[in-house]
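About this split. The held-out portion is used to measure sequence recovery: a designer receives only the structure tokens and must propose an amino acid at every position. Recovery is the fraction of positions where the proposal matches the reference. Here is one held-out target exactly as it appears in the evaluation file.
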């Protein structure tokens, strides 16, 4: 039997909370840096005017859908498959899974590219875009999605590395990329010297260059002697069981991701009834929710590796203890950010523009929804833990429940004569439903029953001590 790598042994034996925090620290850095990519773009595009900012708001949910599907949904399936293979000491399968992950990334990248190049105008019009804001959205979308394969490859290779328990390499690659992007984005948007300004398209070009460089760096690491995995194209033979092991988690997780972004897309469309300023305000304010996604992902990615490795090794109880530790940390982190945004919304909004209608709509959103961000954090981190466990039914149900409340409730608010604040209040209620549904299901034994769990309070307290 293959000996355990020290990194895998830590996931199985080291104290849970310190290990999660140690692994999450570089991962939070990488996710904050990656989220900064979108914020950097929004900051500079905001200098082009409200129409450009509204155009970005229309495209952003779809860009994040691709990001979350590639990094969170399918990326989680990739990381979970590799972690479980390593936990069960199937090293050859873990190596082969890398190439299967690349094939999946290319396929989905082409699918996103074709869908947005052919259907972008219809989609953005449906979301409330028109006039100059619609044209700005199309310009940005056509450039960004022409390189969708690069986004998928970058996030898939990062997931491969994280599946081994190594969070530092993706962090380093991303941080270096963001440092280079900070001057590159305004250079291509506004131009300087011999470099012509490309306007809103320049932000998309800079983004694709960032993903290209990151993809090459991650592949170079995987081919180096420092990598735990040894992928090779020599004599490669694709096997359906390995594709299935990734896809059975990734595709189900994608349903949850689509529901999350559809909730925001519907909210954007509902907000569109109040004009471009309202769309710009909602789009700018809701970027804070999208910022929570990579922050919680920073904790969720090591949780996928730990839960997957523990389950691969048959340690179900430890997997559950790690899950609840992660949920508690996520609630505190995201809840604190949400409360701060609700109390002080304008400093965040003023980073991106000064239009009065944008500021008013954005402030209303943050005051109505920010206090409930803690529930969003809990639901999201339990979604990642469920990926590690290979049990995604309840995260999908929780996200569909959120979609139902956000969409139908927002429609009712407008039909009954409600204003923008009522639409936003429904979005806050939807976040509560999302977190409570998933947490209740897992607490009730949705993964594998109450296997190994004590029935007395004293026994429970003894079992959840760090181990």
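Reference sequence for scoring:
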């Amino acid at each position: 039997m293959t000996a355990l790598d020290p990194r895998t042994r830590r996931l199985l034996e080291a104290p849970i909370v310190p290990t999660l925090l140690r692994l999450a620290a570089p991962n939070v850095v990488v996710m904050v840096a990656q989220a900064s990519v979108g914020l950097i773009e929004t900051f500079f595009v905001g200098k082009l005017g409200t129409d450009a900012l509204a155009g970005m708001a229309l495209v952003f949910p779809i860009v994040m859908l691709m990001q979350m599907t590639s990094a969170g949904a399918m990326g989680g399936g990739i990381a979970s498959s590799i972690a479980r293979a390593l936990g069960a000491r199937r090293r050859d399968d873990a190596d082969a899974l890398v190439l299967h992950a690349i094939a999946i990334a290319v396929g989905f990248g082409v699918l996103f590219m074709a869908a947005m190049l052919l259907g972008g105008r219809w989609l953005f019009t449906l979301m409330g875009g028109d006039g100059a804001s619609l044209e700005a959205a199309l310009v940005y979308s056509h450039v960004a999605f022409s390189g969708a394969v690069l986004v998928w490859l970058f996030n898939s290779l990062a997931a491969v590395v994280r599946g081994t328990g190594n969070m530092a390499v993706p962090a380093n690659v991303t941080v270096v990329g963001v440092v280079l992007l900070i001057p590159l984005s305004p250079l291509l948007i506004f131009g300087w010297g011999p470099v012509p300004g490309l306007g809103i398209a320049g932000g998309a070009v800079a983004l694709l260059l960032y993903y290209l460089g990151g993809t090459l760096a991650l592949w170079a690491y995987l081919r180096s002697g420092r990598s735990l995995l040894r992928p090779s194209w020599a004599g490669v033979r694709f096997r359906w069981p390995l594709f299935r092991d990734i896809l059975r988690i990734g595709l189900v997780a994608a349903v949850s991701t689509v529901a999350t972004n559809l909730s925001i897309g519907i909210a954007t469309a509902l907000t569109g009834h109040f004009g471009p300023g309202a769309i710009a305000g909602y789009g700018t304010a809701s970027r804070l929710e999208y910022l929570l996604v990579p922050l919680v992902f920073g904790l969720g990615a090591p949780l996928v590796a730990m839960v997957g490795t523990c389950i691969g090794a048959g340690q179900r109880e430890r997997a559950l203890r790690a899950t609840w530790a992660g949920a508690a940390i996520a609630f505190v982190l995201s809840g604190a950010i949400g409360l701060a945004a609700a109390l002080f919304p304008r400093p965040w909004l003023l980073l991106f523009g000064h239009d009065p209608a944008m500021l008013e709509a954005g402030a209303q959103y943050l005051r109505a929804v920010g206090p409930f961000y803690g529930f969003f954090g809990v639901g999201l981190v339990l979604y990642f833990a469920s990926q590690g466990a290979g049990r995604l039914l309840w995260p999908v149900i929780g996200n569909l429940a959120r979609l139902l409340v956000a969409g139908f409730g927002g429609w009712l608010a407008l039909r009954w004569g409600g204003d923008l604040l009522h639409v936003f209040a429904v979005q806050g209620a939807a976040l509560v439903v999302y977190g409570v549904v998933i947490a209740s299901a897992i607490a009730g034994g949705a993964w594998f029953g109450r296997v190994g769990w004590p029935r007395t309070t004293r026994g429970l307290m003894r079992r959840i001590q760090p181990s």
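Annotator remark: The chain has one domain: 22-463.
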